[in-house]
Fold each of these.
Amino acid sequence: MNYAGEKPISIEAEIEGTLMKVCDGCAKYGKIKGKAFVKIVYKDTKKPEVKEQEYAYVQDYGSIVKKARERLGLKQDELAKKLNEKESLLHQIESEHFKPGLDLARKLEKQLHIKIIQEITDENILGNKSTGPMTLGDMMRKG
């Protein structure tokens, strides 16, 4: 799911038991585990300036949210009210049917004192900074 000012640059998906970085088109062949985004920041000149801010969801982020909520003695509806979100959305996050956007993930982290997203800092993820990470399609074309 895209959010205002964010553009997906690669998707981490599990395809036939292998975790790999793929493009949107190839992601449909597996289970999406995370997305890397580029956040676009606008200056006074209204010309876009790209600030790289890649992140991925930690494994089992849903159970981490659920355990932290239960540890604090909160029901789903109580936490949803604190976050100003719908209870059904929180249920989908905990069951990992929905991945929260960066803003909601940060709200969850702050409220529950957990970490469910991590910034991707490895500059050599099968590609380079100028062209972005290499996707499965890129590898197939080079083969």
Amino acid sequence: MKILQTIKEEIVPLSRKQNVVLLTIIACFFQFALFFAPALADEAVQQANAQGNEDELIISNDSMVKDATMDLEAAKVSNAIATTTPSASPIVATSSVKTIKVVRESTHTMTAYNSEAGQTDDSPCITANGFNVCKHGIEDTIAANFLPMGTKVKIPELYGDRVFVVRDRMNKKHPNRVDVWMKNRSDALKFGVKVAKIQVIE
């Protein structure tokens, strides 16, 4: 009120009617500034918040659309792989390696022989159990009098893991000897006489 009085008396000398009009204008101005301005500010803040929420909603919607698009693309790729990749049949674990058990070991004199009439009999290719070694053609037959026919043996010192089968017999004067059948006479002569350990397996 002092400010108004100063304006009235010193700055702008006005008549009573003019004073009333001026005071009314000033009062309206202050009322607008003190009451309506905060309300307008609040309204502006609310509009800004609403705009911000709307922007966040738009961004969120954009993210959701992007995520959905990425999921759709991933599903398409997954379906494409599933369609192009042949379905694998179930694998059944089968072991083709047979466990070899050593029943007993013993050391014997070893010799070699061929399918010749002078070394065998009048049918040199046929062993004592009727097996045709010439037709078979594989050097996996041995003659031994102390082992049953069909017994499987290994001679690790001379042949490693090769498996031999008892299919023939020797002269009765060699009860504990092992005779190895060979295709070539030269190989049998070269083999000579050896002493080695045999393993009876099953």
Amino acid sequence: MSANTDLESLLRAGDLLIAADGGGRYCLQAGCMPHILIGDFDSLSVANMDQLEASSTEVFRHPTHKDETDLELALDLAINRKFHEILILAALGGRWDHTIANLLLLGLPRFSAARIRLLDGNQEITMLCPRAVHVILGRPGDTVSLIPVSGDAHGVTTSGLEYSLQKSVLPFGATLGVSNTLTAAEATISLQSGLLICIVIHNPRQRAT
């Protein structure tokens, strides 16, 4: 979890806080007790486990030798409990294999019914799927990048961005969609085929003078 991501400020009444393995440690450090702890717990100390198990946290323990990462297990649980708005913190860490896998998890078809966002400080990452109009919220001047990840993205149309696209192709591997800019508080993006990783970098708010 980024040191700039304030977990407590994100929580709202009725939210379900799920900690995937080492996420339990981050919750404790933030002073927030998770409702659910899930994983094989190879990233939690005995002291952390004792503290979490002694609370009202519901624990789902999985074997170390499994086919899914702890984050995938956590997302499955959230989807099965009918949550359609999911925020993921602490998914962009020091291991590139986990980071890339966590990003691509958002493209799994069984997660497409939910709006899933990865938050890390002032950066927000989502996966954009075809045949839907995706609304991006921010402030004028925020950076928006669109990166195709499953081959070329076809029929890409945008509004509210400095460099607009109209049924355009974003080629896989090219940097055409990197470093666009919001011109309003809201932008819309749609595509006919392919998958796009959308990264929004929110600029710090200017203090009033």
